[in-house]
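EI: anyone free to look at a 269-residue chain?
SC: sure, send it
EI:
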Amino acid sequence: MRYPVLAAAAGLACAAPGLAQSWSTIANFSPTANPSGVWSYGTRSTPTGIPMSLYDLPFNVTSHLQGWTGSQFPAAGPMLGANMTVVPQSIPGTNTVVPPCTTWATPAADRYSFFRFTAPNVAQYSVSALFQRIDPDSPGPANAVVSVAAAIVYNQAVPANGDLASFLGGPYLLNAGQFIDIMIGPGAGGGGATRAEAFIDQGPPRCEANCDGSTTPPFLNVNDFICFQGKFAARDPDANCVHATQPPLFTVHDFVCFQSRFAAGCSAP
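SC: here you go
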């Protein structure tokens, strides 16, 4: 379905500025500009091998859900968007619920929908990504793909039952202008709206959810939540999960960010 375009744009409750060494699909999401900084939004028929077509049509699903699609596509065309509030938001007329402070993408039957990160300079970059089907009415799995410099490094089905799928990889050496793509494809069952959330860090992989610094599995446990709460109360810079650079530096967005990082998991400390 093509979501209606509303006249008023919603406030960017979750779009906190990021540090120069860290970016995310939600903290840097723009509902008005494409490209916007290091991020751009688009589609293509294959995960690699052909140029991306930039989305040119911004839309508002509701006053709290913004997104992008292409004016050249019919009503069932690919799209993506963001819930920039700290509470879940329902898409009217559907059973889809978008989690708080989260980006999502919906493929078409023959097209991928994705977020593209463009490296601003020569450096090593790491990727932490989280995927989850949020459309219970669309049968079959979606296909989550991460590519780095046009090479696929992650390609997995995202089950329709709402289970989380995650990826942590890097560091990858990129030249300025090379891409990291976070994609959702139709999969065997046609796909559907899928949470597609990614953090890009300059440098080696960092398990930011491993607050207590565990060095033996399981790296993530309840002690990390206790640790994070303590650091948040003390206004420790480590608790600035969204990497805000303007006051207030510590808000509920940091708790949502930490929960997302925890859910993504870690394969190393």
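EI: Residues 22-202 form a domain with the Jelly Rolls fold (CATH 2.60.120).
SC: 👍
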